[in-house]
Amino acid sequence: MKKYIVILSAALALVSCNKWLTEDGPMVNRVSDYFVASDNAVQVVTAAYVPLMWEYQNGYFPEWYFGDIASDDALKGGQNKNDGPDLYDIDNFKVVSNNGIVLQFYRAQYQGIARANLALAEVEKMAVSEDLTQELKDRCLGEAHFLRAYYYFRLVRMFGGVPKVEATVYDGADWIQPRSTVEQIYELIFSDLEAAEKALPKKGVLSADDLGRATKGAAQAMLLKTNLYFAQWNVNNGKDGSDYYKKAEDWGKQFLTDQASQYSLCPKYADNFTLEGENGPESIFEIQYMEDGMSDYGEGNGFSRGTFDVILTRFRGPAFGEAGWGFNRPTQNLYDEFEAGDPRLAATILVPTDEQITNEAEQVYLGSRYHSLKRSLMDATTGQYLHLNHDSRGAINNQQIRLSDVYLMIAEVAVERNDAATAKSMLEKVRARARQGAAVLPAFPGYNGYSDTIDDLRKAVRHERRVELAMEGHRFFDLCRWGVVKEVMDAYKASESAEVKAEMADFTKGKHELFPIPQEEVKLGSLEQNPNYS
Fold first, then answer.
1. Beta bridge pairs of residue 62
2. Which domains are present in the chain?
3. What is the pLDDT of residues 319-375, one digit of tens each?
4. What does the alpha-carbon distance between residue 63 and residue 54 come to, in Å, rounded to a whole number?
5. Are 105 and 61 in contact (CB under 8 A)?
6. Count of C-beta atoms within a 10 Å radius of residue 452
7. What is the pTM of this model?
8. Rounded CA gap, 511 and 507, in Å?
9. What are phi and psi of 284, to 5 degrees?
C-alpha cells in the first residue's frame, strides 16, 4: 500500500420504497451492486485506512497535538502564543468542549470506524471466487477488524467511554448512540484485534505495494498495548488489573516468538526518521504518506496524500533551507532528560545557534529555541531540510508502532509482573542500539542513581520510553495510564520559566486525564459530558 493509497469514492443513493412498488426505479444503486469483485473488497478496506492520514479540516489536528503538546515534552510553538488558539488551550490545560481540534480529531476517528464497519459488513457477504480467494477475503476482514480497533483505541484513551457503533449506518437516527463504558469499548477492541491476529499475514509475505497494511505482528503488538493500557486503567480506578497484565505478558511473548524473523532494530536510531527508513525492519505499523502537490486548504479531509507534519515542525527561518511553522517545540525539561552522550538527543532536538536565529520574536517561543527533528526531513549530511514539492505537504510516514516501543512495553509489563530479568533484557536491547558501541548509556542500574530494585527498574523503563520515543506522540498518554500525570505536570510547571508558567493553568486531577466530548457531538447525540467539563 506504500505510496499507493486509494480513496474509495462510491456514490450510494439509498431510497425507501412505498409498499405498492415492487422493483427499484431507474438510477437507484444498492450497496451490494458495488461489491462484486476482489478489487472492490480491497478498495473498501483501503478506504478505511485513509482517515488515519487526515490532519486538516477547519484546522490542523494531528495526534501529536495531544500526545506531545499536552505533556511535559513540548510547547505549542508557532509564530507566537496567539498562533493557534485551540492548540494553545491544549498546551495549557484550558481546553473547553467547543475546541475545534478536539472536534475534528473525534470525527475523523468515527469516519474511519464507519468505513471499517462497511468493509466488515459487505466483504463478509462476498462469495469466494478465483479472484477473491479465501485468503484474500480473510486478509481484508482482518485489516478491517484491526482498523476499527485502532480507531476505537485512539478514542477511548482520549475521551474514555464513547458511542459504540458496530454496524453500517444508513439512517441518521441510527447514528445517535449513547456512550458505552470504557470496559465495553475495550471488549470490542480486544475482540477485533483477536479476529485480526488470526486472519492477518506476517509482514514478510506482503508485496512491496502492500507494505503499510496491518499485519499479524501489528495485531499482536496492539493486543500487548491495549491489554497493558486496560490493566493500568483498572489499577487507576481501584480495580484489579492483574488478568490484563497477564494477557499483555502473553501477547508480548507471542510477538517475540512469532515475529522474531520479521522485525529488527535499525542499526542507527536516526534511520527510523528518514524517507529511506519507511516501512523498514523496525516498523510494525505506520501511517502512509506520499509526495503530493495538492493541499487541503479550503477543501478539508481527503484532498491530499501528503502530511502537514513536516512544515508544522520545521524552524521558522532560512537557516536550514525551506522555512517551516515552528510548532511542537521540545521543552528544556525533555532536553534535560537525555543522559550525557545519548546519540538520540541529536536525532530528536534541533538547537539553533544565536547566528541562525534571525527573528527572535518568531523563532524563540516562550524562551525556548528548541525544535523537533523527527518528522522535519532534515538531511543529516548537509544539515538542511529536504525540498518539498508542495510548500506545505511532505511525504514522511508517521510511525505508530516501532519495535523498540514493543520491547519497552514488554519491559513495562515484566516490571508489573515482577519479572526483572525480562525487563532488564528488553531495556538493554533498546539502550544497546542507542549507544551504538560508544562508552555511553550503561546497562541498568548503572546510571541516573538507580539501585537494582523493581521500583528503580520501573523508573528506568519509564525514562527510556521518554527519550526513545520523544516527540512521537506517546508521552501524555503514557503519563495518564501510569497514573502519575498530575504529579509529573505539577513538577514540570514548577520547573518551567516564569514566562511559560504565566500561560499554564493547573492540571486538575479527575478532569484533565481526558479531553471533553466535543460539544457539537454532545448536542447531536444527547451524550453525557466528561467530568468537570461544561
1. none
2. 1-200+500-534 (1.25.40.390), 214-286+399-472 (1.25.40.390), 309-396 (no CATH)
3. 999 999 999 999 999 999 999 999 999 999 999 999 999 999 999 999 999 999 999
4. 10
5. yes
6. 11
7. 0.94
8. 8
9. -105, -40
